[in-house]
């Protein structure tokens, strides 16, 4: 079993338990919408560009709505549980591409429910998450209005945002820093220090891939 499969299964178990109408941290999306998004991402490559490109977003949204119309929620979750497309044929690619994707969306569902608490990650997953944060910080923080210094509890520093000007220090575990960099600032358990105005701008910025 890989980390990607573990997170995929845990997310699907949670969605099965919560049902189709539970909230998520993805603005405007229920668990049904999230399941359709994940199924589309792996099984409808024609609609994938609209996930990132606004001019194509309308087509992607229509395909996603079509998946919901054709598949009951338990059926969509079952589709997500089985890696589709190229990820079903190449487990190494599933691990490389989907570990963070499913970790973040698992937390999107977990943290939208009452009384959530951060998970204690296995040491090897924590290392994988930090490695991805450290290598991807510049990309994930490219829209930050201020410089960012990420401090991992236990050791490790990564930089993002503008190289000149004011900087904000963000301190937390690898997983919390990942969620912060993925645009879940409000729900990430991190400590921000720096100029109050810069901190406020960073909290409100649209971060992530």
UniProtKB/TrEMBL annotation:
Signal peptide residues on this chain, from the entry's feature table: none
Origin superkingdom: Bacteria
NCBIfam families: maleylpyruvate isomerase family mycothiol-dependent enzyme, TIGR03085 family metal-binding protein
Protein name as catalogued: TIGR03085 family metal-binding protein
Source species: Actinomadura luzonensis
